[in-house]
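Render Zinc-binding dehydrogenase in 3D.
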Amino acid sequence: MKTVIVPAPGKIEIRQVETPVINAYQALVKTEMVALCNATDSKLIAGKFPGVDTYPLALGHENAGIVVAVGEKVRNFKVGDRAIGGLISDFGAQGVNSGWGGFSEYVVVNDFEVLKEEGLATPEQGCWDSFEIQNTVPSHVQPEEAVISCTWREVLGAFKDFNLTPGKKVIVVGSGPVGLSFVKLGKLFGLGQIDIVDMLPAKLEVARRMGADNGYTPAEISTPEFIAAANRSYDAVIDAVGLDVVVNSVLPLVKMGGDVCVYGVMTKNPTFDLSKAPYNFDLHMHQWPTRSEEKAAMTTLAQWIEEGRLSASDFITHRFAIEEIEEAFAAVKRGEVLKCVLTF
């Protein structure tokens, strides 16, 4: 089968490897579509993802496909279901390391609920936390929505961790797929005013189309006039980039007792300037999704999709065949892509 490999930092290739062999608790999924994660996948290719320094690696964690075979103990997948979150399973047998391996012609999903019932859902038994979000999606969720849901459910799953509730006033820094998802999903969820910050006017315009109430540049929100007018009125400030400099830029805007929310993998030694913050605030670090919340979010997303309130067409700007993976990443690197999908 085909799989996307990063043989060394800065290089990508499509390699033929063996199709995974499933065990009793797994299902085999034939991939229909994958989506690039502009942050994680790009960092893995560049050799800049924290903690990952062993190559070659099999790439990708956003995919959707059709179940073609199931193990004898599997209950929650059946042939013909559409599933998301699959990985290749035995990296050692393939001669590669894990970059999740979801950009493969065939991937494996695990029946986490059965593993849990039988006491096998532990790291000692070889169970990853990501097994919990290897799920089916309802039949009305088409491949485009299914694969973009890998991003949406991570973001919506963070709402509880970030103490976001309907009516709250929020400012989001960064208008990539994550920042725009906070806007789009936040409006559907019932947040109140949602403002967004980005350096590029074109991205701010996209954010407004997604429902953002106001768009600002970093320079605008750091002026004394803006800070005075905001008067610490934001219930939550969200860093959708993962940089301490971003957090520091919005600390003067958060209200007393408000929430400072970091979405993304940050340096191990961030520095926050507490002189800019109210003396009481809650700091939330969301470097990886809380898997139970991520899984539960799919139910709400599926409802919004069925109602026509949420569409992948709002996010997908580029489409490629998997053989064009290098061109796809080049477009990401040039900053042209909001969300890019590739078909097998």
